[in-house]
Design goal:
Elements lengths: L4 E4 L5 H17 L10 H4 L4 E8 L2 E10 L4 E9 L8 H15 L4 E7 L5 H9 L3 E2 L12 E7 L2 H7 L3
Parallel strand pairs: 4-5
Antiparallel strand pairs: 1-2, 2-3, 3-4, 5-7, 6-7
Length: 165
């Protein structure tokens, strides 16, 4: 794989809309409706959210978003790799980019919610490998057997060692 280009996205393109629809479909396939916390296009356009896509030329590789809860706390949302690019480091590159950007913005902690079933094991492994640990529900979340909550405190030394640049 050549260099991955990660850029802020306005969610207008058909490729990203299709990838996000596949993401939502998969969430509903693997979790009951009341336990799906993935955001739709309208919600992802909220001013508190920055949305990124990863590209190789004209090929969409994946996406991820950061929702700002307050100056010190943000949430990772909508991490998804296109099926054709799984296990190529796309999600890790996106995650590291988002962590670095959050740190530059002064965010001190990033949290996330992911699923608990087998379909979410790869995501859980990625988040754990990047220093996320299990935590209690945050923001407006409530305990849910289909949700795993994780958080990471952003430390300068972690980001220096793992910077994608």
């Amino acid at each position: 794989m050549t260099a991955i280009e990660i850029r802020v996205d306005d969610l207008q393109g058909s490729a990203i809309q299709a990838l996000l629809q596949a993401h939502l479909d998969a969430m509903y396939e693997h979790s009951p409706p009341e336990s799906v916390h993935a955001l739709d296009l309208a919600a992802l356009r909220h001013p508190s959210i920055t949305f990124w896509t990863a590209w190789e030329g004209n090929d969409l590789l994946g996406c991820g978003a950061l929702k700002q809860h307050d100056a010190a706390h943000a949430e990772l949302k909508s991490m998804r790799t296109a099926d054709a690019h799984l296990r190529k480091g796309v999600a890790q590159a996106l995650l590291r980019h988002i962590l670095s950007t959050a740190h530059a913005r002064g965010v001190q902690r990033i949290s996330l919610e992911t699923g608990t079933g087998p379909a979410f094991e790869a995501a859980q492994k990625l988040y754990t490998s990047e220093g996320f640990v299990e935590c209690e529900p945050f923001a407006n979340y409530v305990p849910d057997p289909y949700s795993l909550f994780m958080t990471k405190v952003l430390a300068d030394e972690d980001l220096c060692l793992k910077s994608p640049n």
